[in-house]
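If you are new to this repository, start here. Below is one unmodified record pulled from the training split, so you can see the exact layout before writing a loader.
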Amino acid sequence: MSMPAGSDPEQTRRDIQQTRADLGDTVAALAAKTDVKNRFRAKASTAASELRQRVTQASRSAKSTATQMTRTMSQKSSQRAKSVKRTAQDTTTAVRESAIAGTQTTGKAGSTLVTSARAASTRIGSSIRAKPAPVLVATGAAASLAVMAYRRRRLRCLR
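And here is the target side for that same chain:
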């Protein structure tokens, strides 16, 4: 076999080996592009992990919002309960004073006391009917806290 003048056989061998390596890389790249099953698995895995992250973030956000709303409703219901309690105390005091005054003046404490109690009951009932939202909020807040406490206890038992 004759070689052209000025060519090195070792250089030619290296060029051939380099060409073969490049050709092998090209074939591997084409095979990877035609492997639809693995490409689909990779995309599905990526989409699933992104979805998990979104769900986790939404869950954290929902828990935070629920906690804030529970605190707000609890505070509002507590304020309303204090107001109702003051009204009830004032009414009770008025009933007692009325009963004492009725006993001292007419001797008919029983009927005066019943009348005063009915009036107090009517005032408290109308106060609640006029603004039922705070009472409902207090009930909802109490229910939320009960559910949260139940879940915490249940999780502790499972651990």
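Two things worth knowing about this chain: The chain has one domain: 16-158. The mean pLDDT is 79.
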